[in-house]
Amino acid sequence: MGSVRMTSLNVMWAATAHQVFRSTDAGRHWAVVTPAGAHLGFFFALDDAAAWFVDTTNGPSAPFGVWRTINGGASWSHTQPTPPPGFVMGIQFIDRLHGWITISSGYAAGSQAVAVLRSSDAGVTWSLVAKSTAPDSTQPGASGIDFGCDKGAATFGNAVVGLLPAICAGGPPYIYRSVDGGDHWRSVGLPVLNGVQQSGGSFAGPIFITPTDVVMGGGYYSSSFVPAMLVTHDAGASWSAFRLPGQGSLDFESMSSGWILTDPMRATTDSGATWHPLSIPAPPFKPGDMTLQFLGRVVLSAGFPDG
Length: 307
Prior knowledge:
The strands form seven sheets. Strands 13, 14, 15, 16 and 17 form a five-stranded antiparallel sheet that branches. By secondary structure, the protein is mainly beta. The protein is 0% helix and 41% strand.
C-alpha cells in the first residue's frame, strides 16, 4: 500500500513500498524520483518541492535514516538519526524546518510504548523529546505519556501545539496534547456522544484545518460501532462530538465544508451538522479502503502496487 498527496493543483507526490513518484500535470504523467538504494518507510510531502521519508533498509525496528528533498526530488540528502529501538509510526513536518517522528517501542495487550523525536533543522538531526512510561512503571513519566492504550502518531498544527491519539478498547476515550513542541503531554478527555452507551472509542489522526481548528473521524464502541466526528476550536483543549452518516475517511476544506468517503460519498456545508450525498459516479475502488485529502480540490489517497 502507498499514498498520494496533491500539494498544488498540478503537483502530486506518490509513494509505494519501493518508489517515490512526482507529477507536475495533476497525475497524467509521473516521474520516478526515488534516491538510489533507498527503501521507503513513511513518506511526507510538505509542498511542491519539499518532502521526506524514513528509510527502513536495515529493517523495521533498526536505526533508520531520513531522506529529504527541497527541489522536487531532483536530489536528496540523507541523515542517520539514532532513535530508540522500535517501529516508525509516522513522520510529519509543519514547515521546512520543524518535524516530528513517532516511534512504537513495544506492545502488551492493548497497551503501547511510544517515543516522539523532533527536528528543528529540516530533518538533519533528531532529538528524543518524549517517551511513554515503561510497562512495569506505576509512576507518571516525565513526558506525561502512559504505557496504557494503543497510540497513534503525533500530529502538530504549529511548532508548539500537537496531538497524539490514544486508542482504548474500554473506558473513556482521550487524547494527549502538547503545548511545548512535544516535550510534555497531558491527557484530555474526549466527549461522550449523546445517546450512546459507549465502551471506548477509536479515532483517526487529527486533521489541523488551522492551528486551532481540528477534526478527527472515527467512532465509539457500543453494541455496534457508532461512526462519529470530534471537533475542537481551541487546539484540542476541549472537544465536541457529532454523529457521522457512516464509516469512511474524513477531511475538511474549512471548518464548515467537508467530505466523508462513504458509499455514496457525502458532503457537509454546516460543520458536520448535516450531510448530503454527492451526485457523482461510483468510484472504481472500495471507498472504505481509501483515505481522503483536500488540497485545492478533492484528492483520494489510494493504495499503490509495490512496484
